[in-house]
Amino acid sequence: MISFYPGPSRVHDEVPRYVKDAHKKGILSMNHRSEEFMKLYEQTVNLLQKKLNVPKDYSVYFTSSATECWEIIAQSLVQEQSTHIFNGAFGEKWFDYTYRIRPSAQAIKFELDSDLPENLSIQSNELICITHNETSNGTCVPLKRIKEIRLKYPQHLIAIDTTSSMAGTRLDFSQGDVWFASVQKCFGLPAGLAVMICSPTAVSKMKQIGEKKHYNSLVVIDSMLQKWQTTYTPNVLGIYLLMRVLKKSKPINEVSRKTHERYEAWAAFFKSSKHIRPLVKNKRVQSQTVLALEADPADIEKIKSRARKKGLLIGNGYGELKSSTFRIANFPALKKKEIKKLMDFLKLYR
Ligand SMILES: *Cc1c(COP(=O)(O)O)cnc(C)c1O
User: Fold this and answer.
1) At what angle do helices 218-225 and 200-209 cross, to 10 degrees?
2) Residue 180 in contact with residue 162, Cβ under 8 Å?
3) Ligand 1: distance of its center to the CA of 253 in Å?
4) Which of 33, 35, 140, 174 has its CA 20 to 30 A from that of 87?
5) Do 138 and 287 meet the contact criterion of CB atoms below 8 Å apart?
6) Which atom belonging to ligand 1 lies closest to the Cα atom of 7?
């Protein structure tokens, strides 16, 4: 079965071989306080910096999921109020989780086909939360807009959920303070690990707040990082697999170019379609990594079930868009011939 699900998604072909290697090399029972683990952590961080263009002075932490990152941010980087700007289900979930920890969290919603607004009525001067790639509806906030928000709100920390874009498209880490993603989307790895990348400003803010009530309090995680250590037994296998995949992957600019070409090919493919339309009409805010497509609910059911019989797993719509849309991942682990197979199949229903 070829998975076009936008997460958990198709893993890189080499993953089973890497798992075997991990077993042979004793990684599966590696002690996380050992010298070997410290080396693995350091090596993986170096590769992330090199392959994804993460600035050298940014700190890289491992957590278990993007959801955990939402909570860590609410606990350790917000004192009173964060501002959440979103147009879809993941941005809203981030707000909901934060709201339970910081009840004065502010939500600003915007429309599906509009740009994330530049003029915001932000109530506090703490933290702005943006979902870069909204996996539920296939929208994306252009990097240019993030830069504009940065210029306009220089006093705020900016946190950006890049779960379905990091490692798939180029990001400009200098324009934000907290960037995070779990690895079961663009990284092409099994779930259970996430990376969280913090700017020096975010690090000094977390120290100034000094919140230490949780096993995953960020200052504690940061102090462990100084010794290439973690606060709990981490997903060592996940980190090892990430290291191996990064080692083999092309620099992000090259990956990003390929993602863009494939996205353009999909856009052209659906342009001539009568029955299937992109949910998002404004190309400027269309996601390059997750395609959300709209069609008649009965057609969608038919397409999904027939695709499955052909060994093609198409993503369901998410949340309230479940029956009116379906989703196709445009993640790097997918192969050219697999995309062609799905296009050839969808030609029958266009
Ligand atoms: C998948 C996803 C999440 C949740 O990731 P978990 O690893 O399940 O916590 C959060 N945000 C976005 C944008 C996502 O696509």
Assistant:
1) 120
2) yes
3) 23
4) 174
5) yes
6) 1
Q: Which of 130, 163, 316 to mutate to test the pocket of ligand 1 (most atoms within 8 A of CB)?
A: 163
Distance CA 176, CA 128 (A): 10
- Residues near 238 by Cβ (< 8 Å), separated by ≥ 6? 183, 189, 190, 192, 193
317-335: average pLDDT: 97
Residues 6+ apart with CB under 8 A from 98: 70, 73, 74, 78, 82, 84, 105, 129
- Calculate how far, in angstroms, residue 136's C-alpha sits from the geometric centre of ligand 1: 10
Strand partners, 86: 109
Cis peptide before 8 (omega within 30 of 0): yes
* Residue corresponding to tokens 């994306």: 140
Q: Whose CA is nearest to atom 14 of ligand 1?
A: 163
Torsion angle of alpha carbons 94, 97, 99, 101, nearest 10°? Answer: -130
Each residue's pLDDT tens digit, 214-225 = 999 999 999 999
Q: What is the pLDDT of residues 84-138, one digit of tens each?
A: 999 999 999 999 999 999 999 999 999 999 999 988 999 899 999 999 999 999 9
The pLDDT of residue 350 is above 90: no
Probe residue for ligand 1, chosen from 70, 135, 160 as the CB with the greatest number of ligand atoms within 8 Å: 135
**What does pLDDT average to over the chain?**
97
Look up tokens 């009116």; give the residue: 324
